[in-house]
Amino acid sequence: MRTMSSAQQPYLVERGPGRFEYQLPVSVKMVIDLKGRVPLLRNEREEWELPGGKLELGESPESTVVREVEEELGLEADLLDGLDVIDTWVYRIFPHRHVFIVSYGAEYRGAREPRVSHEHKALGLFTASEVKDLTMPAPYKKTIEAWWRRRSAP
């Protein structure tokens, strides 16, 4: 098995003569409806992002995203209601850094207020209309918009 990397084709692994496939890390993210606002975290690139993180060996995507929400926001997993996949995409962070994203949505029904962990610089609570003006990757904005549309559909 050969690995090939270039600016055009990162993370490719040869599976047969001339047949390559992507080998990407998987990251799971969550859009949380917290009393009409979505909690977002500011990362080291000064961008807002959804809570979540990398899929660990032996974990399901659902258990990963629930664990990450508990770690990053301090919100109790058993009070997340309606956990549902919103969308998936490949996120090009840098030319040689791509990640496969799976995003979920849920409503938080607890009383605890979210808090920021040591992994991020800041926590913000934003309405759907405020998200469009934030410094954040476009796919995250699209995911948040899709979740709010789904929540408001009859």
TrEMBL record:
Keywords: Hydrolase
The organism of origin for this protein: Streptomyces zingiberis
SUPFAM superfamilies according to UniProt: Nudix
Domain Nudix hydrolase span(s) in chain numbering: 21-150
Hydrolase is among the record's keywords: yes
InterPro entries for the chain: Nudix_hydrolase, NUDIX_hydrolase-like_dom_sf, NUDIX_hydrolase_CS, NUDIX_hydrolase_dom
Protein's name according to its UniProt entry: NUDIX hydrolase
Family note: Belongs to the Nudix hydrolase family.
Domain of life according to the entry: Bacteria
Signal peptide: none
GO molecular function: hydrolase activity
